[in-house]
User: What shape does this take?
Amino acid sequence: MLIVECKNLKKSFPILRGYMRDEAGRVMAVDDVSLNIERGHIVGLVGESGSGKTTLGKIILGVLKPDSGEIRLGTDKLQVIFQDPYNSLDPRMKIRDILSEGLILKRDTEEKRERVEEMLDLVKLPRFALKKYPHQFSGGERQRIAIARALLTRPEMIVCDEPVSSLDVTIQLQILKLLKDIKKRFNITYLFISHDLRVVRYMCDRVAVMKDGKIIEVGGAADIYSNPSHPYTKQLLASILRI
Ligand SMILES: Nc1ncnc2c1ncn2[C@@H]1O[C@H](COP(=O)(O)OP(=O)(O)OP(=O)(O)O)[C@@H](O)[C@H]1O
Ligand SMILES: [Mg+2]
Assistant: This one.
């Protein structure tokens, strides 16, 4: 069953930095993208900086309206986890308040408290974390808090936009494991945006490769890695093998 169905999506922006990609003076951030996502899958979206990954993620989240094309969602329970856990958590708020905010519509404070604590356990942070402020945590811990916040509303799908790119490698692996465990437990669908093909290989069932606003290749993760068909994908793979 499909949870996301995108057809011929286009989104352009006025050019910011003075370089041109098309004659009208606009950047085609998303250029005729069609992509389906099966419920319960982890779909990777890879591509170099500026290829349009975040723009596509925002269209799926409903934050951006496409200029044209169609998008059909099988859920309205969507959440997002961003790359930068430093800017995504309000520095003036205690963790308890940051998390409770997600449950603002819930009246019952006891139920709220329980749900917040349950999420904290899930992301393996101690209870005393609730009394602290974001700056008192490491980057990895902050990302756990951001994950807990995303999970509070029991989403059916999460757009993870470079969720581990700001973390060092050992912490990356911990967070990726956590995201995988959570996915298994709640059968959440992820759109997993990353420029790091190793991260995507570890996480994803399927992979879509983006370049200049277009999806140039999509397929099973194993297939794409063992047998990339597009020269650009080959190039991307070659560049990780060199590292
Ligand atoms: N709000 C905006 N206003 C103007 N241009 C934008 C806006 N958002 C994105 N763009 C442009 O659209 C293109 C795609 O940007 P996008 O952020 O989707 O890329 P990305 O693949 O997520 O890159 P990165 O890996 O660096 O996060 C870029 O050329 C970018 O400059
Ligand atoms: Mg981005």
